[in-house]
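Reviewers asked in the last cycle whether our approach scales beyond single polypeptides. To address this, we selected a multi-component target totalling 888 residues and predicted its structure end to end. The input consisted of the following lines:
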Amino acid sequence: MASGKIGKDSSCYGYSKERIDEIHNTLPCRESQISTLLALFGKPSHAAYSSIFIYGHTASGKSAVITTILQTLQLPHAIVNCVECYTQRLLYEHILNQVGDVIPSPDNNYSCYARCDNMNDFVRLLKNLIEEKELGSRTLFIVLDKAERLRDMDANILPALLRLQELSNCNICVILISEIVLEKFRTGTGFHEPFVLHFPDYSKDEMLEIISHDCPSDYSPSFYISYVNLLMSIFYMVCRDLNELRHLAQLNFPKYIEPILKGEATVENAPKLWRNIQPHLQKALQTIYLREVSSAQWEKYQLENVEGAGSLPNLLSLRSSVELPYYSKYLLIAAYLASYNPTRTDKRFFSKHHGKINKHKLKKTEKISFQLLGPKPFPLERLMAIFYSIVEGKVAPTANIFSQISSLVSLHLVSHVSSDDQLDSAKYKCTVSLDFIRSIARTVNFDVVRYLYDFV
Amino acid sequence: MSRRKSTLKLTTGECIDEVQRLLREKLSHDSVTTQVFGLETQRRHLLDIIKRCVNMGESNSAIIIGPRGSGKSMILKSILEEVKLEDNVQDNLLEVHLNGLLQTDDKVALKEITRQLQLENTVGDKVFGSFAETLSFLLEALKSDKKTSRPVLFILDEFDLFAHHKNQTLLYNLFDISQSAQTPIAVFGLTCRLDVIELLEKRVKSRFSHRQIHIFSSLSFDEYIDAFLDILSLPKTFPDKNFTKEWNSHIQSLNDDNITIDVLRRIYQNNKSIGALKRLLLLPVCRLSEDHPFIRSTDLLESCQYLTMDSKAAMLHGVSVLELCLIIAMKHLTTLYDGDPVNFQMVYNEYQKFIQRRGHSVQCYEKAVVLKAFEHLLALEMIKPADGGQRSQKEYRPMMLLVDAMQIDDALQKYPNCPTEVKQWNMTEFHA
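The resulting structure, written as structure tokens, was:
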């Protein structure tokens, strides 16, 4: 679609054709964005527009395009990441260091180009530096990656950076890169409008083209593409992140070619390979994609699995198992019941001689509202009352029992609601999921669902 | 001179290069003076104030108010250039430029004033009792070489930010000097806030001369087109005469083009400022090349599409189908609860209902996978938490949807390979 533009734009702006082609080759599927950016940058001596705002999804090549252009064409530039530079001083000194080619090292006693605390000094120092470096009229590019963090800094920083060219009277172009749209940056009395450029997401075909670049050398690209296509059929609905897909493709490839290595299938036998890989990929979605299993563990598992029996040891239940003492388990169950049951039903659930249950009355309009709305706070007395009614045998209310409650709080299984009074009328909330409490209840042979209002 | 001019003939490439150099300068540097459109009275008023300060030693103060990109700094700069042409002014007038974005407190501002008046050596290591003392010392020091003091022009850009300084000491002292002291100073504030006077403290307000100059872009559409033509036209000083003639006649012909007028009208109705016009012209000018030496109306149309693009819909285009389902579920829930915030558990419940009832091609995913998608939406700021604290669990945190129904419809139209059920689900009226 944009390929027609390459020939037209590639030889201009005073750069050699090879350089421009090099940029286009290293960054596939970004032709129109690159040519727009090259047009905006123009020749080094041209006056550049004061600020450019680039937005797009994760892994759509925003930083890669900018960095490659600036480095390949050897334009004077400074690239900073706003997550790293979380105070204004760090931000200014990083930029000044990069422009002034100062690298803090043992040789210069880790000193910066200059100490710079505020925007006023920054602009003054930057101006001096540009004169010192004899950049002349060449445009200086300042790239701020993850620019959404600038919003958390002082209110004057973002507007000042956007009009840095006017403030410093130098030929400076500030490039902001973010995943968040420009509308969310606006505050106060507004700022000098940057030129907004959108990096659209890659289409499925473009993704395949890019991923096919890291095909292992022993196999043909078309074989690899067909494998990635299978992978996409599982993951594409959930994940559009190119980096994530590439990572998954590389991680699961050994499993895919396993039948070929064993001699059970050939490269052409796609259906067989698909049958082999499909359940494996399904499992990957639940484990490796959620990072519940690390990549190293996954690779190990794949290797062991070649022999047969190796399985991911309880990895799926990993998130819902924790070892607790006996009474703590009951306390936690009691806390869960107190959080998810309305107070008025306590008598019906927990006292021995409750009256007749009117099932019709219980099954009212909003049946599972408590599971939806989340836990409600409860006082300590109610927790203890429920605890004593569900626990078997006699338990003395010793200091041990009460200290177990506070240890549950410190484990973040139960949380304090109002911290105004620690001893009297303390209120708690249970912060574990239903699956978790079920598995806890199973270990003590307690049927928790029978006591839950929502499921009666 | 004329002999040289007549022989000068550049190749097209050189001409384009020159055109780009000229026009880029005009479009990207805001304060480069261009013709002033429809602001003659304001300009005369300002010129008068400055001249009286410079020539007669009259102290004064004024605030210039106008929206962003309306040419406040540009007018002031062009006036200063004009005033400086008079020979007695050139070496007599002192300017101090301050900007609310740079001088964020009075200490920095005072240092900057000292620097701009080139008095660092005079001040040295002297210690002063108060702000006013320092400032009066500075102005006094300017007197030293002559017996009459030199006029000083203070230009405070982003004036409203100076009003947020502690006690407004700087403003108080500047206005106080302009009211009482002997040194002739003129204080100009530039701001885009209409209510800037209300920000001033009473004592500061009473010392201010209450001279407000409003710069509102009151261009009619015809004047707007004139401005458009003026920005693009090449000046008479352009080296290659033939090319200038060709270029200018081409620019004039754009005036008769329907597409161009249509694009300009759209931008005009959106934003009347010259700044917006310059942003429109930036890309077409940058795209000029040897194969494409003149601006065509299609270039303007393309640039207009760039400027008026709905960025949220563009971002929605790139989310996964699962995330799109969550947004639709959230939209339905928000209409059900009259705009009250909803939590993840409700959204997940709704999503499951959809899968069970209608989703044949859409797979049901595990809760943790859906939660990951939900958190991605949070990171993109398409949803935001409605509570301040971090106390509650992720699943039960109340959330607000920040995308409206129109944008969702729009995105679904353009979404590549969108499952039909999802589209239908979006269209259905929601019933609990």
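Chain B touches chain A through 74 residues (CB under 8 Å). We regard this as preliminary and will revisit it once experimental data from Aim 1 are available.
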